[in-house]
Amino acid sequence: MPHTDTDQIIAAWAAGQPVAEIAARHDIAPHTVEQIIAGQPPAEQPPRPPLTVVVAMAVVLLDALIMLIDLVGAGTSDSLGLVVVSIGLHGWLVWALWKGWRRARWLTLGAGALLTITSLLGGGTPYLLRALVGVALVALIVPKASRSWFDR
Questions:
Q1: How would you class 104 by CB atoms within 10 Å of its CB: exposed for 0-12, middle for 13-18, buried for 19 or more?
Q2: Which residue among 4, 73, 130, 151 sits deepest, i.e. has the most Cβ atoms within 10 Å of its Cβ?
Q3: Range of the structural domain that residue 70 is part of
Q4: Which CA distances in Å does 42 have to 25, 28, 31, 46, 135?
């Protein structure tokens, strides 16, 4: 972090601004702001995501594959555009998870819950498999190691 950002963070804190507001303005985690205020150097970011996030990324790719297989099995091209867009969104989500974007974590939690609910209401084997994918997404993003990846 550049020295001027550190000075701005300390000045904002001294002026009475809340830590969460300072963190949001500088796009850093609140605990990093607290470390700067305490005079400690910010902790180094891990070079790659923890295993739980990597597995969540694989689960997102598995879901995209299930969608593609389901389309090929149906033998219809009516929903091809929707599937292509959805696979593109899956790819973006995998990339965002790798980068550790906070919004990707919340999107994954929401998508996992929505996928579970809609798949269970749909019935059938492919739907059950997609419901398990949704449960896995939620379960993989919740652990502390995963949360810390997104709180950097």
A1: buried
A2: 130
A3: 51-150
A4: 17, 10, 9, 12, 34
Tokens standing for residue 81: 């555009």
Whether 43 is in a domain gets the answer: no
Q: How far apart are CA 115 and CA 133, in angstroms?
A: 8
- Residue pLDDT tens, the chain, 152 long: 455 588 888 889 899 999 889 888 887 888 888 888 888 776 665 567 888 888 888 988 888 888 788 777 776 666 777 778 888 888 998 999 888 888 888 888 888 888 888 888 876 666 777 788 888 888 888 888 888 888 76
20 and 66 assigned to the same domain: no
Q: Is 15 helix (H, G, I), strand (E, B) or coil?
A: coil
Residues 59 and 23 in one domain: no
CA distance 110 to 138: 8
